[in-house]
Amino acid sequence: MSDNMPADPVTELAASAAQLHEAYESFVAAGFTEQQAMQMVCAIITGSQGSGS
């Protein structure tokens, strides 16, 4: 294996994207519309930008 390959094939960005998708799907499953679910996911992203995460 090459030395410049990441140890974990799932990057931090990919893991975050998967978590956001899971949140979106959970909101829709809980009864929110797709638009409402997307707005909540956007709020999560916007809120996390100021926290250094």
Radius of gyration: 15 Å
| N-C termini distance | 31 Å
What number is the mean pLDDT?
88
Strand content: under 5%
Estimated structural class: mainly alpha
* Strands, count: 0
Task: Identify the overall geometry.
Answer: elongated
Quickly count the helices.
Answer: 2
- Detail the poorly predicted runs: none
Helical residue percent?
55-70%
> Could you spell the SSE succession in H and E letters?
HH
The description of the largest β-sheet is: none
Report on this structure:
With 53 residues, the protein is mostly helical. The protein contains 2 helices and no strands. The longest helix is centred in the middle third of the chain and has 18 residues, at 12-29. It is elongated and about 45 Å long. The model has no long low-confidence stretch (mean pLDDT 88).
Short description:
By secondary structure, the chain is mainly α.
Keywords for this entry:
single chain, 53 residues, mainly alpha, elongated
Write the layout of secondary structure elements.
Layout: H1 12-29, H2 34-49
